[in-house]
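Shift notes (night). Ran Penicillin amidase while the centrifuge was going.
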Amino acid sequence: MKIRIKGNYPQGLEITRGERGVPHVKAKDMAGVIWGMGYCHAMDRGLQMLVMRILGQGRGCECLDDSDEMLEVDRFFRRLNWGGRLKEQWNLLNAEEQGLLSAYCDGVNAYLSRKRPLECRLVGYKPEPWIPEDTLMICRMVGYLTLAQSQGEVERLFIEMVQAGVDSDLLASLFPVEAEEIDRDLLSKIKLEERLVPETLKWLSPVPRAMASNNWVISGAKTATGNAMLCNDPHLEVNRLPNVWYETTCQWGNQYGMGANMPGLPGIVIGRNHNLSWGATYPFMDNIDSWIEECKEGKYKREDEWLDFTVRKEVVKRKKHDPLELTFYENHHGVLEGDPNQEGFYLTTCWGPSLSGANSVRAIFKVTRSATVEQGMEALGKLEVAFNFVFADNKGNIGYQMTGLYPLRKDGVNGFLPMPGWDPEYDWKGFADPKDLPREYNPECGYIVTANQDQNHQGVLDPANMPMGDYRARRISQLLEERGNHDFHSTRAIQMDTYSIQAREFLDILLPAAPDSRGKSVLESWDCKYDFDSQAAPFFEAFYSELRKKVFGEAGIGVDIMVHLEQETGVFIDFYQNFDRMMTDENSPWYKDFTREQAFAAALAKAEEGYDWNKTWKDVNKAMLTNIFFGGKTPAYLGFDYGPIPLRGGRATPHQGQIYNSGGRQTTFSPSFRMITDMGEKVLYTCIAGGTSDRRLSKYYKDGVEDWLEGKFKKLEGQLPE
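Came back to this:
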């Protein structure tokens, strides 16, 4: 179906819709293609783009909803200052790159100037034209929110646990610190403005008794066709409409590209062209640091001097209230969390790419036109936000490159701990060369897997200090090793696999230690798969939850705290590896009042109390896909939401299906988009949790959900001139 483009547009541009409404953009040159991408983004995902921009600018109360909740969102984004110094980033782009980015904005505005989303009319918002700085700001946002943000949150949790009096040896067993590195006196003086654990919950101080994405590439030596293959399924939030990702195919001259990007960003973020494919996961890079600032009378200490902060005043306009002025205090370490006029110790925090954007846009443009794995590694190695990219080309090569601005610190400094801001020795010394980050090219084993696990051994530097558990990576590697003739069907089966190595390893400890019981019998017969009809999977999760409360709650942190961390944060979704290690290690310092086997048996018995044995995994692990604008507040008959839908898999299975609460709302980790490609074909197999359009009345609003649930893929085909 051909899309009629109104108004002026690049000569030779043609946009058609293919299967599931995925647009195909054909143009004479790349500038024409990028213009067409902008037009399609505005047409199909205009609301998504505009909401992202409004939130990033901290203008929710002005443009959307003047509520107390939205005011806190605005305050959060104003503090981060994503809009700061964007013009500098624009000036770093060369003339061609500026031309491409301007073409994207022209395409966006060509559509939005004629037709704005209905929801904008409902709230009285008339969108301003899309400008290059908006795209540069979104580059920053997508690399921080829920990704780098989680590293900052776990570092805050560590400080809270120190201040609550949790023993240093116990802390050292859970976090990447040595007990002797913990300056309890100094850390206890920090005034925390925001806490992960509310102060109303009671920490249990020690007493005398003491107490989530997958990608992989396969060389031709292990595939049925003899060609390299790439598979990717980024695990992001899926309980939303529209989906995070937007699919596109495009053609210009004798080149094509296809895959997924995010509305607001031009180019192909993950996907392929004729010669090269690339896919991404998150590496849990520690590129966010905090410094302790000693403050008084509005100043901060720097060596023997007291210096003035840079004062930034922001005015939040409100639809129903008077404007609110916010004041932020900044220095070279970042934004202060507190008021320096009140004497004390406060934190400043900086995320490495906080003033970035230009190099990320440049990297996406370059990789879209790269022809070899080495070119792709070089192009995306310059990306400023942190990702694990894998590559495969049509010459049979495969590769891996971690990306992101990784700060160089003084030798021996642990970036997980807040540093003394008054000592210049603790300032960042620049950023790492991408070639010193983890990377690999054509390994002997014939494949590369990244699944948020520790990849430090593949680089000169150690950028990750709190990676996810390696269970998914181990399972994927296990399945890749089982055969030497992988194809679409075998790799699809890996993406849909729900076997949990984590569960197997816990059961190997539990079953010999526990007395006979109904719960033990259920788990003994379990195949460790988190399938929809499994009755054992939800019971194992009940046991696992009780075990965490027993080991960490009773033995030092407090049961109420553990319940809060489990039910209201993503701590155990992202950072379960060290907690698991301490639960399975019989010599763990957390086992002082009871043995490992006693803890496991007690947790099983507790989980059995009042348990509903009839429920299955699909009964308990389900989520509603809610419209991003209305947020689940519309009546069901209007059809803005979909579900609830069950999610297969758990935290540690290749097909992840994790549901949890964070920031006061339900969220998920699951394969938001799946893609598989064989580099001997001009085909990309994909499925997406949602549809192409964010328009409720469009047939492409949610038409892909059921296929995504069942693992049914569609076929995108690259097109070249005859």
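DSSP finds 22 helices and 29 strands in the chain. The longest strand covers residues 288-296.
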